[in-house]
Specification:
With 82 residues, the protein is α+β, with helices and mostly antiparallel strands. The chain has two helices and six strands. Strands 1, 2, 3, 4, 5 and 6 form a six-stranded mixed beta sheet that branches.
Length: 82
């Protein structure tokens, strides 16, 4: 069973809903890519409830991106909007 659900929004946002709430990641639409902070950067940027869930989020995002003909970029500079 998945931990997260994902919903793309019109302003190049991917809304991620999990067991403790929601947050938003950048999602480019021209060439679809989702931007996820590295695990180390995630510790500084993520909502408290989501910090230990980075491995599950990464795996589920990879699957979601493949299913939606997109890519996943893991980068220190990626943003998380809470």
């Amino acid at each position: 069973m998945a931990t997260f659900t994902f919903q793309s929004k019109w302003k190049e946002e991917l809304v991620c809903a999990g067991p403790g709430g929601t947050f938003v990641l950048d999602f480019t639409m021209g060439t679809p890519f989702v931007y996820l902070p590295t695990e180390q950067a995630w510790e500084q940027k993520a909502p408290p409830w989501a910090k230990p869930l980075w491995p599950a989020l990464r795996d589920e995002l990879q699957n979601w991106c493949r299913s939606n003909d997109g890519g996943l970029v893991v980068d220190d500079g990626a943003s998380v909007y809470c």
